């Protein structure tokens, strides 16, 4: 590169257009590789979030989650989209539908998560309501645990009040002056506030995650209950799977495979990912295909939008106050190379990577012909 820059007299390749064409070529090669992974994936989920960049433009970040043939769960960043012109639920919904169509994953889409913008989190007019056929999935066990802990706290006000007094000096003997002539018992006052706050949180959890019963099927691979399932098969959990994702499974065969798994200690693993890797490494995929697909289904369902949040860090590094006019295609290309650098480094080890980049680069319209005809 140094020699080229020192000796080149006609073509240096440093123009803005050349840079953008090279970025787009690499971007295209990476997207093609990701498309191959998605085509081979059994299930796909989509994660979307929105933020504002330094130029006050609303950037929508999109990530696809799936399990590869190598039994590795991937969350691939797809790109940024400027949605400043229209941030309505209809417009954002159109973006999601277009993304699903572009990546040809509509028939295998099993979950979607949204975070950030208020329009995206709304219950009635938000994006979730527009795409109701594939609702958001959160980590069911953690939500249930949080709700149970909070409900139990309603009976522990006395302990909470004693700690409050020790830490902040709240004295039960001193009344709270509501007016000149009326004072109220502080313990009674704080108990009312305490119960209201806890009740509101619990009610909000119930309202926001009212559909979690649809995902009771996750209990089918709860390894802490294997001994219990050996005695009595979890029919309710299987019915939940049939209701939500039954179209993807041979249910009768799955039940048979689950019974085998519950009865054999070799299948008792620390996590679902360990079980999936075990089935794959021991060549049991053909013998237990439905159980293998169930593992993939559960691992494809996202519990957080952390990967989307991380893309915002890349956005802040690429689009700065000094570079606030970065175009959308250049922004997505640079962001993809930064966020998916592991994929890029893997592709660079292949012999055909540079040839593919050059082929795409040469197809761009320019004053000199780079392709011999």
Automatic annotation (TrEMBL):
It comes from Octopus vulgaris. This is Finger MYM-type 1-like. Residues 15-126 form the DUF4371 domain. It comes from the Eukaryota. GO terms for molecular function: protein dimerization activity. Residues 287-343 form the HAT C-terminal dimerisation domain. PANTHER family: PTHR45749, ZINC FINGER MYM-TYPE PROTEIN 1-LIKE-RELATED.
């Amino acid at each position: 590169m140094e020699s080229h820059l020192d000796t080149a007299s006609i073509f240096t390749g440093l123009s803005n257009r050349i840079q953008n064409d090279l970025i787009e070529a690499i971007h295209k090669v990476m997207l093609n590789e990701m498309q191959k992974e998605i085509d081979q994936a059994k299930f796909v989920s989509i994660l979307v979030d929105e933020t504002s960049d330094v130029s006050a433009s609303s950037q929508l970040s999109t990530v696809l989650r799936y399990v590869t043939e190598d039994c590795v769960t991937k969350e691939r960043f797809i790109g940024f989209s400027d949605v400043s012109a229209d941030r309505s639920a209809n417009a954002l919904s159109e973006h999601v539908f277009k993304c699903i169509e572009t990546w040809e994953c509509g028939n295998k889409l099993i979950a979607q998560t949204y975070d950030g913008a208020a329009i995206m989190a709304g219950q009635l007019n938000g994006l979730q309501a527009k795409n109701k056929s594939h609702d958001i999935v959160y980590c069911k066990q953690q939500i249930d645990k949080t709700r149970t802990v909070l409900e139990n706290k309603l009976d522990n006000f006395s302990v909470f009040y004693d700690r409050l007094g020790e830490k902040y000096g709240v004295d039960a003997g001193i009344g709270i002056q509501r007016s000149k002539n009326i004072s109220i018992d502080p313990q009674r006052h704080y108990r009312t506030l305490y119960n209201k706050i806890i009740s509101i949180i619990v009610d909000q959890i119930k309202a926001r995650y009212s559909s979690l019963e649809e995902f009771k099927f996750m209990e089918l691979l709860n390894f802490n209950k294997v001994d219990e399932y050996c005695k009595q098969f979890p029919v309710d959990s299987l019915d939940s799977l049939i209701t939500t994702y039954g179209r993807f499974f041979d249910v009768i065969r799955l039940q048979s495979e689950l019974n085998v798994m519950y009865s054999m200690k070799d299948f008792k693993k620390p996590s679902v990912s360990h079980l999936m890797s075990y089935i794959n490494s021991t060549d049991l995929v053909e013998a237990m295909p439905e159980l293998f697909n169930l593992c993939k289904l559960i691992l494809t369902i996202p519990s957080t939008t952390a990967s989307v949040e991380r893309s915002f860090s890349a956005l802040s590094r690429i689009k700065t106050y000094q570079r606030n006019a970065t175009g959308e295609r250049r922004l997505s290309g640079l962001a993809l190379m930064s966020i998916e650098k592991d994929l890029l480094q893997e592709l660079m080890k292949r012999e055909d990577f540079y040839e593919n980049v050059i082929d795409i680069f040469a197809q761009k319209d320019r004053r000199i012909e780079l392709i011999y005809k």
